[in-house]
Structure formats: C-alpha cells, structure tokens
Design brief:
- The protein has no helices and 15 strands.
- With 192 residues, it is mainly β.
- Strands 1, 2, 3, 4, 5, 6, 8 and 9 form an eight-stranded mixed sheet that branches.
- A hairpin with a 5-residue loop joins strand 14 and strand 15 (186-191).
C-alpha cells in the first residue's frame, strides 16, 4: 500500500448576465465549502486570475467564520485548501508555489482541495466542493513472529508535493513504525 496524491478538483462555472450588470469593482464574493468529511481547518482560499497570476489569499481559522472576498469584475479561479498545517511549504504567493508534505512524508489529517471558476460582474456566491488529495492508511499486520521486537513498513514511490492547480510531483518514501497490540497484531495510527 502507498500514499497517493489524487488530482481531483471540483470545478463550478458561475456566469452572470453582463447585460444586466455593471462591471464595477469591489464585488463581494461569498464562498461556501463542502466536503464528505469534516474540513480540516485552517482553510486557505487562493484566488488566481485568468493568467494564473496570484491575486490574493485568505486564511479561515474555523467553520464559524464567513468566507468572503472583495474582487474586481473579471474571471477568476478560486482554490480552497485545508489540512496542511503539518506541511513544510504552504506559501501561496504565486501559482508556482507548492504544498510539501512534512519531512516524514505523511500527515495525521487529510489534505483537502477544491476549486471553482467564476466570472464576477456583481456580488455572488460560489460553492467549492473539497476532496481528499491523499490516501488514508490503516496498517494492521498479523502473523508476525512472537519474538519480533520491532516492525516497520516502508512505502516508496510517493508524490510529496502538490500545487494550487492540483498537479503533483516529487518522488520519495516514508517509513512507518508499528506497535504490538495485546492481541498480537502490529498496528499504526491512521495516517495520510
């Protein structure tokens, strides 16, 4: 078994009839996120323009905070990323910046990401569906000789970098130490 980044991203195109709206600046965009599991805060919102140029970022610390941005009229790609507080690199100052897994190449919470494309001509609401970008592992080994003093599993050929467009890179490995349980199984806590 091995950790895999997936390149799932929800895309939602939101267009507004420009004939009825003025192209004014400073439109208020409310963002709603949803996922099939709990969102791992803090939640990072990254806005890219049509040329993939970083426009702004915002950090939401909890689900109790409203997510809204002021944007000029135009077309944007909005990305939401969560579950990265253990990661080494989380700078979103440009589209080329990446999220890098911790030194041991795994996290205790899932990395979640989603995105939407939106054309802004007025105040609007955008919905971003978040998907897990990593695999969850529950390791449990049986039939280990009773005189074994330690057990570990090495997972290799892993991607350990993810950019805000959902592309993965890097090739590395991780080593998981298991602990012996009273029933003779060797297990490790869930990791991603």
């Amino acid at each position: 078994t091995f950790i895999l980044f997936t390149m799932l991203a929800a895309c939602e195109k939101v267009n507004f009839d420009e004939t009825e709206q003025e192209n004014t600046s400073d439109n208020r965009i409310s963002i709603t996120t949803r996922a099939n599991t709990d969102i791992e805060y803090p939640l990072h919102i990254i806005v890219l323009d049509e040329e993939n140029k970083h426009i702004k970022s915002n950090v939401i610390e909890s689900g109790n905070e409203d997510i809204s941005l002021s944007l000029d009229a135009g077309t944007y790609h909005i990305v939401a990323v969560a579950g990265i507080k253990e990661c080494q690199q989380t700078d979103f100052s440009s589209k080329d910046k990446i999220i890098t897994l911790p030194e041991d190449n795994r996290t205790s919470t899932p990395i979640q990401m989603g995105s939407t494309d939106i054309m802004i001509t007025q105040n609007a609401t955008a919905t971003i569906t978040m998907y897990n970008q990593v695999a969850a592992f529950d390791l449990s080994l049986t039939d280990i000789p009773s005189n074994a003093s330690s057990v570990s599993v090495s997972l290799s050929m892993l991607c350990n970098k993810l950019d805000v467009r959902g592309s993965v890179s890097g090739e590395t490995s991780t080593n998981i130490e298991l602990k012996k349980q009273s029933d003779g199984r060797w297990t490790a806590p869930r990791f991603y």
